Amino acid sequence: MKESIILAVDGGATKTTLTIRSEKGENFFEQTTTGSNYQTIGENGAIQVLSELLSKAYHSTNLKQIHLAAFAIAGMDTELDFKIINRIIQHSIEKSSFNVANMIVENDVHAALLGLVGNHPGALLISGTGSIAFATNGNGKIVRTGGWGHRASDEGSGYWIGQKILNTLFRIEDGLLAGPTILQHLVFEKLQITTMEELMAWLYHPHYTNAQTASISSILPKAVSLGDEHAITIAQNAAYELYLLAKATLCKIHYENETFPFYLNGGVLKHHPMILKRFKQLIYQSFPSISIELCTEEPIEYVVKRALHYVNPE
Fold this sequence. Notes:
This is ATPase BadF/BadG/BcrA/BcrD type domain-containing protein. The chain is α/β, with parallel strands linked by helices.
């Protein structure tokens, strides 16, 4: 029997990765480019990003027949999103030279979870620019909590942390909070500015994005390590918000204290030691049988595994 060829795409807000693999794991092509979230760059922009990747993949491999194309796309949160993203993908594939026999299109976190656990129970919480959690009972039920975007929620995320840092600086500037705080020095250093007026100009720049505010969160670990009280409070609150996200997800899946893998991913959980430590403490206090594990592979690898589980169900 001829070996199946898998095309997998991990499409995020900041970067998009496409890979073509054999069923046995041979890597024929892999490339990463800019983000493909249509909510950020529009439908035509997303089509352009995906079309260019597909074109490069085809001309690099000349593998016309694709048994399964798995698209794991950020920003797919509603039925309308699903319709729009499906339209984007269909247009992109039609413009390519590939012949795709089967296709799955899923939210990126949903796909990553299924790549991690297959047909077994488990959960995945991601805190990067935004925050979201999915869980499955292994019998077809999948639940979701969070992921509503920075205008609605995203508590405990990089954006949320960045916004809290900025809010702290402006409240201290107004005399509403006691200062000083090392956060100001670290923010000014990161942005290469020297005044609050310059910070205002940066924040309200016409080309501002929520990812820019999320990037401010990267200064928090250093401020925490220096003992800054405001930074420590933000870190502890972020951990608690992520705990609430995890707790709600476990309740939705009707978790009952059995051994259960809970995977974590995203820059906040990987690069903020205090947040990760406090999050684990809170989870273990409430759910002592949970097994917490940080994801170690690149997101595209979980999309590939998701595709392989689909081709060869356990």
